[in-house]
Amino acid sequence: MVLSSVLGFPRIGANREVKKAVEAYWGGKISADELTKVAAEVKKYNWTNIKAKGVDLIPSGEFSLYDHVLDHSASFNAIPKRYLGHGLSALDMYFAMGRGRQADGVDVPACEMKKWFDSNYHFVVPELSDETDFKLNFNKAVEEYNEAKALGIETRPVVLGPISYLVLGKPAREAKPGFQPISLLPKLLPVYKQLLTELKAAGATSVQIDEPILVLDQAAYLEKQYSSAYTELSQVAPKIILTTYFGRLDSNLQFAAKLPVAGLHIDLDRAPGQLDDTLAAVKPTPLILSLGVVSGRNIWKTDFQAAIKLGQKAIDTLGGDRVIIATSSSLLHTPVTLASENKLSAEQKDWFSFALEKASEVAVIASVLSGSQDAQVASLLEENKKSIGARRSFETNSNDAVRRRVSAVTPDMLNRKSPFAVRMEVQKKHLDLPKFPTTTIGSFPQTKEIRTARAKLNKGEISQAEYDKFIEKEIESVVRFQEKVGLDLLVHGEPERNDMVQYFGEQLEGFVFTQNGWVQSYGSRYVRPPIIVSDVSRPTPMTVRWSAYAQSVTKKPMKGMLTGPVTILNWSFPRADVSRELQAKQLALALRDEVVDLEKAGISAIQVDEPAIREGLPLRRSDWDAYLTWAVDSFRLATAGVSDALQTHSHFCYSDFGDIFPSIQRLDADVISIEASKSDMKLLQTFKEYGYSNEIGPGVYDIHSPRVPGEQEIKDRIAAMLEILPDHLLFINPDCGLKTRGWKETETSLANLVAAARWARQQYA
């Protein structure tokens, strides 16, 4: 019999219950016990509904109130010293690590966040050193296994593997030079052995241990560590299913298939070509092979016939008792369910499959491969065939004008009229900014009043004219604040925008949108990714009205704000029938028109954000060049159609640039702003190493935390930056947009930022 498996499930709740409860706890509106009750209800919903779909192997232990990697750090006592000794409860210390804390005499910044491989999910980076005292503070895997068992549901616990955990970590501040976190493996393994021993004693018969770094090149150098670790763990653990996802094993397959584990999971959604090599490697072993044939990263309905073909190939080689049909990865990256989507057309809804629907898909595919004669299974198989056929028919419809325009792109369209050195002098005269110009990354706080007005418009309770008048007042208020606090290059604050990707998708042809298609980005920050369903074009200007209005109420220069083509692509659910390159080029041409129109409307600087350009980088280095070529070309295509006087900006966050720095240079943005404060400004060393000739604004404070930076703290950061960067190239700005922050903290933080910039002008005159 072929079993079915789900590797993980969204932990946000069908109606975002976790977000609401966590933020209520932070605001002192509910107790820790009340928060725990909400979490318990969401876990119950997940387990019972996955079971109801007929899935055999149901995940537990992967639920989180903030981040699953942070859960492991808290569980393993990998807690940086700065969070200790403040009298915080375990829960408050956990949240302080995730988002910082500035209350009741405690003032600590958050830990660094990074993107989870090539997704838009952010994890909290473990900080490790020889002083890290690993011990099991609590056994979350056992607690949730028992919690599900009490409900009558048998689950397969999920644990992040020890080697991936260490490799994803970073040296703590107190670590000795040259320290590598993987050196702590001998200290960490006893804690994992205790965790797994207790799990086995609780009755778990198998455990999913995630080792996603096995799809990275660097894992090739860790064969000995994998062998020693899993030799030890397999002696005390339930049956281990070693789980990989997001890419292909490549040469790492040769040692992974020899590890003393019960099974191996591979991602056939992102890397279907690895099946043959994996079957050949696994066949002589007793390993079970788990096939990730249902996408954990996209929302398109699974083609049952294609998935069954892959499954049957594995069964023919290994036998049905050695094959599991599974999601490709955790379903964390997909919305919870289609059931609450009432505004999609029947045709559109038939294209998609969210987490609960994907759970049903793995169960149906496994049933078919097990030889089921059930009439309902046969009916579902036939329905899927019709759905896939209808979608394929729709995909044959293309917008010839859009396709022709992409085909007509020439190399000259990717280049500004003059090199940066020339443009810089023109822009200095045109913008007349002071030394160390201050600006923000774009958005200002999205207040309750803004959200209420948007909701009233959507419900028809106010007219478009009334809403527009409200937005004008909000923009003017933001402009007046910036003038008052003393910022140099202003923004309009983006009160009209619901999300930096969704807002543009709603105004472009080729997208559809959900009502409740929420996906976790980090902590309590959820997004609703738009879905690209057909060729993309811009029917009318998207932002010109609001940026032009903002410029009309001030004499200071105004910066237009756009989201870049690669980020719109990476933060949407893309089409699966055409290349990402084609989709990015279509988006770039739409944005090119917007950039040109903004300049015509009197806007002197335009920021085209590309925070996702690094996250979209393929996981294997051999695949980088092709991606970076079209990704950088797409940005240049979007921004190169303007005069030398127009200052182009771009923003990047939570990215390691060292390995792609030549591509960052090739973007040829006049100014780039980067996250720097949360990563201890280590990114700046890359700029020093390579030499960066254009202007740059490293973030001087972390906006993902409610903590307010002091003026001296910002002065210290500026001084540190100027040890690395030429003073004539430095902009001063926060790490990221201010949308999620409150006004009180925003006002104080920006006042401190401006004061520090004024100090710098005097100090470095």
Describe this structure in words.
One of its GO terms (biological process) is L-methionine biosynthetic process. Pathway: Amino-acid biosynthesis; L-methionine biosynthesis via de novo pathway; L-methionine from L-homocysteine (MetE route): step 1/1. There is one protein chain. By secondary structure, this protein is an alpha/beta fold. The protein is 42% helix and 12% strand. It contains 27 helices and 23 strands. The strands form 7 sheets. Strands 1-14-13-12-11-10-8-2 form an 8-stranded parallel beta sheet. The chain has a 5-stranded parallel beta sheet with strand order 19-20-21-22-23. A two-stranded antiparallel ribbon has the order 3-4.
Please outline the helices and strands.
Elements: E1 3-5, H1 17-26, H2 32-52, E2 59-60, H3 68-75, H4 90-99, E3 101-103, E4 106-108, E5 113-115, E6 122-124, E7 127-128, H5 140-150, E8 156-160, H6 162-167, E9 170-171, H7 185-201, E10 206-210, H8 223-234, E11 239-243, H9 253-256, E12 263-267, H10 275-282, E13 288-294, H11 304-318, E14 323-327, H12 346-349, H13 355-369, H14 375-395, H15 400-407, H16 420-431, H17 448-459, H18 464-485, H19 502-505, E15 509-512, E16 519-522, E17 525-527, E18 531-537, H20 544-552, E19 559-563, H21 565-570, H22 580-600, E20 605-609, H23 624-639, E21 647-652, H24 661-666, E22 671-674, H25 683-690, E23 695-698, H26 711-722, H27 743-763
Parallel strand pairs: 1-14, 2-8, 7-9, 8-10, 10-11, 11-12, 12-13, 13-14, 19-20, 20-21, 21-22, 22-23
Antiparallel strand pairs: 3-4, 5-6, 15-18, 16-17
